[in-house]
User: What shape does this take?
Amino acid sequence: MPMSQYNPVEVTYGSCIDFELVYRDQNGDVEDVTDGTFTICAARPAEAFQSVVLSKSDAVNGAIHFHLPSEAAEKLNLGNVNWVRIARSFPDGCTDTTEQIWIATR
Assistant: This one.
């Protein structure tokens, strides 16, 4: 996974964090996420990720934009110890979650 503990999103301490996630099915094809709802389901440190904004930047092509404002990013710990998991809720009530997305703060 591109954002694993061994290949984290690398950021500068205190700067806002912006990146795109693209949801893919088991065959690697992009998924239409138009009907999904996205939330943070787990994080470390939890208080740092309370201000995350998740928006559908290109839902038909599976793209979700992740934004963490700089004020919240200042609550992250230095090093490769921060992570977040995103829950995707479907209209039928089912939920699926991402693996841990690691964020290394330098």
